[in-house]
Structures are given as structure tokens and as C-alpha cells.
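FAQ: What does the model actually see?

It sees only this:
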Amino acid sequence: MILPQLSKHVQNKKKEKIHLIQNKALELSLFLSIPAAIALLIASEEIISSLFGYGSFDQESVKKSAQALFYFGLGLPAFSLIKIFSTFFFARHETKIPFYISLISVLLNIFISIIFFKEIGFLIIPMATTISSWFNAISLFIILKNKKLFNFNLIFINRFIRILIVSFVMGMSFNYLINFFSDKFIYEEALKSVYLISLVIFGFTFYILLAILIKAFKISDIRLKY
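And it is asked to produce this:
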């Protein structure tokens, strides 16, 4: 009787450790992807203009590329979730499910792009990519939950709420700075890339410090010693 109980206890401990690592991986992924997505949504035009807005890449090209970047930004958290959720399957040697879902996502991407291209134009490509990516991520999550291969713990839920709060505050401050220095990001400005890099560094530093302050992130979290 003792041996079966001991074996069951060991298995439960192993499952708890696996779920803890899964939650931590998901937490770190969202900690980086959510603020990055917000920054892309806020400063998509400034980013494109600073990186490519020179010479033959005119203002119209900047605006169109910025619109595409905006919609790609909406899908950034989904891209990171797909990577995380897929590894949960790969770790259990289940490669078929992620493959089939990815295949369906690709077909969905192509279908949406073809159907709506005439009405929407080139913007349907980033839109379709974002939609299919969220479909992929949500499908993987649902299957993981149904197979009981993943469970949220209270630590993750608590941290996720704090991450959302910090990301919102960072987004507000970053948006204010972008508007405050709007004259530095006009197409003709030669040093706009310098201002962009400076604001990104400031925004990221502010985000990290605020996250540490309200305990949405701890430096020890990246060590993953379980």
C-alpha cells in the first residue's frame, strides 16, 4: 500500500512542477509580448518612418507600411503564445496536433486574404495573419485544457493582472511621449531614429521598473530553478 501511494505522490509532485514551469513560460512570454504589441500599436508610423522613411521611401509608403505594422502588432501576443503552447505538445511527443492546427491556420490565412483582398486591399494580409494566428493560439489552448495538459495557477493569474496594469500605464506614458515629441518624428527630420531609440529605451526601462515595483516581475523569475 505504501509504494503505490508514494508513487502517486511523486507523480502529483511531477505534474505540479510541470504546470509551474508551463505557467512561468506563459507569464514571461506575455510579459514581453503585451507591452511590445502596445508599443507597435501606438508608434507604428513613427517606427516605420524612423527605420525606412528616407529617400525613395516616401510618406505614402510610410503610412501604408505603418498600417500593416499596426495589424501585425495585434497578433504579436498570439505569435508568442503559439510558440509556448506548441512546446507543451512537443514535450509530450505530440507533434500531429500542432501541425494540423498550423495547417488549418495557414489555409484560413490564405482563404481570408483571397476573399477580402479586392475589398480591403493589401491590409488584408496582416489582418488575415493576425486572425489566423489567434485562431492557432486559441485552438492549441482549448485542446491543452481539454486534455488536461495545462492549468492556470493562482500565481499566474495574479501576475497576469499586474502585467496588464503595468502595460497599460507604460502605454499611456509612451503615447504621451510620442505625442510630445511628434515634431521630431516628421518625415523630414534627420534624427528621428535617435529619438525613437531613446523613447523605446525609456519606455522599456520604465516598464521594467514599474513591473518590479508592483511585483509583476522578479529578476529571479528568469532563472527557472524548479
